Amino acid sequence: MLVTPITPIIGAEINDICLANLSNDEVAHIKELFIQHMVLVFRDQELTREQHKAFSRNFGELHIHPSKRSAKGGGMQTKLNKSEVSDDPELFIIDTKPDSKQSNGEAWHSDVSCEEIPPLASLLYVTKTPENDGGDTMFANMYEAYDALSDDLKNLLMRKYAFHDGEIDLRNYGIKLKPGQLYPKASHPVIPAHPETNRPYLFVNGSFTSHIEGIAKWESDMLLQGLYRFVAASPKLQCRVKWHKNTLTMWDNRCVQHHAIRDYVGYSRYGERVSVLAEQGPQAFFQDQ
Ligand code: SIN
Q1: Is 269's C-beta closer than 6 angstroms to any atom of ligand 1?
Q2: Residue 233, burial from CB neighbour count under 10 angstroms (0-12, 13-18, 19+)
Q3: Class for domain 2-278, per CATH?
């Protein structure tokens, strides 16, 4: 396979590989590249839904989005995307119509960080791109975001937990929970250690994080808004992926945030996303002895 880094900090394009037909050695190599580059972009893939899911299962069991789980399973069974055609609970459909009021993920976030155990990876397979060539996705490296902080701020944040509330994200889509409906909420360390690299990374995002726990709301707002501004205003942390028809991009949902760009009003874009369950929730980098 041909590996071309997108930037020295994040992302690689992988060509000359067929995800529907991988040897064990190729899977092992892709796992190494995933940890190294965090965002892998595979071009020219002809995949059925089953092949997309089978490739994703190389990384773990598949996640079921809370919008597809019953209340008992910590979800609410409401279509986030009104035009959704698939009933497969393991597929999250991203179907933006020419006149859709919004598309999925139009802000910096990691997918469903409100889950007790957020997915370790997401794999989005885009089969229809807008005719105006828009619809790119940005990705940002949260290891580097942490590394760039001052020692004083690192020391403060690594002892803190933040609350992630799925209702914040639902409100962004104009959805209000009905009485009796549940949606995930969870407390996670602001600075977890990546389970495979043991590196610390920043884990708060504007789509799900409501507050940093144990400090006044105004202090939490000040810190979170500052961190979000820093991530958004730091091109050095970021790469931008241009989708072509039949591109599959996978990202490490722990140490990477992403942001879909809706610069294609009047055109349509279609993709199907599969996410992979982690074995455990984020663990704090700082362990008090
Ligand atoms: C998302 O996973 O948040 C959407 C990404 C995209 O549509 O590019």
Answers
A1: no
A2: exposed
A3: alpha beta
